[in-house]
Write a structure and sequence with these properties.
binds coenzyme A; alpha+beta; 195 residues
């Protein structure tokens, strides 16, 4: 079957929906601002950056998704006007401000650092090398000399996955308030890229 990595903006409408579903499958538990799955799906369809999300496809099916950030841009922007459209002026403004405090925060400082904002593969197609293909794609981007990712300490599978892909633990944020989300504390992992 033909394998392909495309930017989010290059996908058809139904493929974009599949990509957003993958994202919500992996990270939906952190999107506590609404319980309405349909509305959340519509929102993310509009706020995913068209270029900063790379999608792995086999045939027509989206099986993996990777969001990339730099010291200037990050791939998910809870734009105020879009949040207001779905949640009304008051709640929409709060959601935009609160979510962007994390999602638009500068997470890397250097020009040559790439931040792996989101990586998720289709639950039925894990352990088949798709996550590794996407990480290798990020490593092949010539403008960067290191890749940084943050993983929650309870996500043992992901930590092992990144270690297998030559990431090393560079910092443990043991006292982060993110612990309240129930997934442990954030661990920063770094991989140096040799081009
Ligand atoms: C972490 C995650 C992205 C890994 O994706 P994946 O597609 O399963 O990754 P890979 O298949 O490349 O590697 C996973 C495992 O499969 C093994 N593997 C890779 N190719 C394989 C193949 N062809 N046949 C059998 N096994 C294979 C790897 O050795 C690796 O083993 P490990 O789990 O013992 O470390 C995926 O589990 C996921 O989406 N998790 C939910 C979201 C998440 O936690 N993301 C990370 C935080 S940002």
């Amino acid at each position: 079957m033909k394998e392909n990595i495309l930017e989010f903006g290059e996908l058809s409408l139904s493929q974009k929906e599949e990509a957003v579903e993958l994202f919500l499958d992996g990270f939906g538990k952190f999107m506590t601002f609404s319980k309405d799955e349909k509305v959340k799906k519509q929102l993310f369809m509009e706020i995913f950056d068209s270029k900063l999300f790379l999608c792995y496809l086999e045939g027509d099916k989206v099986l993996g998704l990777m969001g990339l950030g730099t010291n200037k841009v990050r791939p998910i922007n809870f734009k105020k006007d879009v949040c207001i459209k779905y949640f009304g002026k008051f709640k929409g403004t709060i959601i935009s401000r609160q979510m962007n405090a994390s999602f638009q925060k500068a997470v890397v400082k250097g020009e040559k650092e790439l931040y792996l904002d989101t990586l998720v593969t289709h639950p039925s197609y894990r352990s088949k090398g798709i996550g590794t293909i996407l990480v290798n794609k990020a490593c092949s981007l010539k403008d960067y000399d290191s890749i940084i990712v943050e993983v929650f300490s309870k996500n043992k599978k992901a930590i092992k996955f990144y270690e297998n892909n030559e990431f090393v633990i560079s910092k443990k944020h043991k006292f982060s308030f993110m612990r309240l989300l129930g997934s442990g504390y954030p661990i920063k992992m770094t991989k140096n890229i040799k081009h």
